[in-house]
Write a structure and sequence with these properties.
Radius of gyration: 20 Å
Helix content: 25-40%
Oligomer: single chain
Structural class: alpha/beta
Order of helices and strands: HEEEHEEHEEHEEHEHEH
CATH topology of the largest domain: Rossmann fold
Amino acid sequence: MALQSTLQKIANKVTKRAGPRVLSVKKAYYLTPNMIRITFAGPELEGFPTGCEGGNCKLIIPEPYETKDLFTNRLENGDRSVRRTYTVRHYRKDAQELDIDFVAHGDNGPASRWAMNAREGSFIGFAGPSGPKVTHFEADWYLVAADPSAIPVAAATLEAMPRDAKGVALFEVTSLDDKQEINAPDGIDIHWIEHTDPSKNSNAQNKFIRSLDWPEGRVQTCIAGESHVIRSLRAFLQHDRQVAKKDLYISGYWKIGLIEDEHQAFKRAEG
């Protein structure tokens, strides 16, 4: 029993995740009219894993006017306050710089509010990251689709693809001024469509994807966004197009009318 207990303690120590980091802002700017890019930098990123672009992380939002010391003490004592899920966009190991993109939707959410007010020296808690959402590229053809919340994971997936990859990428944005430069393979046909009011349901992605001339061969997807859209696309891809489960990354990142905690509870209830 003593040996088993010792081995269990060792296993727990090895597998235990590191505690949250407190990251400092190096630069904050509008990448597009409705997307803010925050670059974090500093020794707190020592040991950060490479190759995690497209992986998710948890951001822990400090209280307004809270000092960095007080916030750090709260995290160390297990008080994590408001947490939101985001995506690693870039990590540059040599410079110890991390980019995370935020949809700018005013003061309606704590993360957006924090990002809109972020300046050099601002700070935030960070837990994670996970690995990339798409880890293998073996298809004859790729289908990528995203609304603003999922542009980072879709863009990171496109940039990780083999340079001879072929397929279609569809981005639904609030304004066509929100187009971004993405280092996608030349064989990926990129489309941008405008949906000016994200608080209302959109059927544009469904119409576009269902109207595609479906290719022969193996298809892989990277699709994420609003849950109503995702539910319909998942049914189409799984049942109508018979895309293999192992080749299907499709995820609801948010739901109209719900904050993240409510959306996560909704997803759990759906199973």
